Amino acid sequence: MTDNTSSLINELVQTAIKNGADAADVVFVSGTSLSVGVRNGATESLERSETCDLGLRVFCGRKSAIVSATALEPSRFQALADRAIAMAQILPDDIFGGLAPDAETGPVLPDLSAFTDSVVPDAESLLDTARKAEEAAFAINGVTNSGGAGAGYGRTDITLATSAGFSGSWARTSYSTSVSVLAGNGTGMQRDYDYHSTVFHEDLDAPELLGRNAGQKVVARLNPGRPKTGTLSVIFDPRVATSILGHLAGAINGASVARGTSFLKNRMGEKIFSDSITIIDDPTLRRGPASRPFDGEGVLTRPLTLVENGYLQTWLLDSRSARQLNLPGNGRAARGTSSPPSPSVTNLFFRPGTVTPSELMSDIREGIYITEMMGSSINPLTGDYSRGASGFMIRNGQIAEPVAEFTIASNLNDMFARVILANDLRFRSATSSPTLRIDNMSIAGI
């Protein structure tokens, strides 16, 4: 992002103020991306895009409105400001709206080396990466077809300015590789995948490793049975264990709590997990996939402990939900160019446990190891939980035969209280979890 861009963003903010707005902010997002796809060795897709989006938000008394555009053109600033102000004046009051009172003032100059890499791959190198992933998967005996492999690169630049004096810019790069393959034939076919995305190119897993993992996983799933209906201990593979954190994030979202639509709305300060569980949201995590120097309202970011030793410590708050709940904000605002800020997580993770995944399941005589879930029936008011799943039986502490077409059910209050964690945490996505165990879950099978 150039100094000229920041200057133009601030100019638009001042134009809105001169035209009659009491307060205003502008977010500008530009990006470039390149992605490719192959299937059975042949190029299937090649997409390149460049985007540019601008969002102006104005406040007129207690009223507010947002207008967006796809170009940063000074000649249109007057019209954008006039349109936003005219819209705000006919909308109802929002008594909780306004700029964040704890946002920084003056220019914020983050260290962009924490968020961006200099490697810019071309289409040929991405195609080579995708083909290597697919070839490695086909090298596994039993793989019969490809669901496609892909590779991509992107860079996003973000600038935010407010009439309270905040001005800051930052950027993030991303690199990704994915591969999906099939095994078996006819109605007995199974599908599985592997995927990795990073901020820095050197952190990206080798495509051969991803392909080999996908191939081994799909072959292991062939000829699944169905578990018996009953109550069993369940082990969640890390790639699906993250969903448990996702349900927590939704339940402690300040907007949901303020609306009264969360089953945890009255549990602040109470114990909802066991003593061993601590959950952290850290926007400052080095090389983290969702790290950022400031939030969508210009509040500088800091790590936030959401659950400590089992006790719920705080909600996820932007300035609006903080006002609704009469609490100080905590810098968790996220926003787009055409929508207002709302609470969101950044790098969310469980602090890992002390046992290995093998030790975590060693005392389970009969249970289920889940590798994939589908569908969702989650009641945010009560926490009732039901999802379709597939994976493997656990017998005498060992992963055994594959199973599919069954449902797991419980209540999230009970599930949270019974979470036990392994020590294999890896930061592979914005929400990260080690292998996770929950006892006494209802299984609907045969």
What do you see in this structure?
The protein is globular. The chain has nine helices and 20 strands. It is α+β, with helices and mostly antiparallel strands. A hairpin with a 6-residue loop joins strand 6 and strand 7. It has two domains: 217 residues, PmbA/TldD superfamily (PmbA/TldD fold); 223 residues, no CATH class. The longest helix is centred in the first third of the chain and has 16 residues. The protein is 22% helix and 38% strand. Strands 1, 2, 3, 4, 5, 6 and 7 form a seven-stranded mixed sheet that branches. Strands 8-15-16-17-20 form a five-stranded mixed beta barrel. It has a five-stranded mixed sheet with strand order 11-10-9-14-19, with helices on one face.
Q: Distance between termini?
A: 58 Å
Share of helix, binned = 10-25%
Strand content: 35-45%
Q: Categorize the overall geometry.
A: globular
Query: What structural category characterises the helix and strand content?
Result: alpha+beta
- Biggest beta-sheet profile: 7 strands, mixed
Strand-and-helix sequence, N→C?
Answer: HEEEHEHEEEHEHHEEEHEEEHEEEHEEE
**Rg measurement, Å:** 24 Å
Work out the helix count: 9
Q: Which regions have little confidence, pLDDT < 50, spanning 5+ residues?
A: none
Please give a quick description of this structure.
The chain has 2 domains: 3-219, PmbA/TldD fold (2-Layer Sandwich), CATH 3.30.2290.10; 224-446, no CATH class.
What are the defining features of this structure?
38% strand, PmbA/TldD fold, seven-stranded mixed beta sheet, single chain, 446 residues, 2 domains, five-stranded mixed barrel, alpha+beta
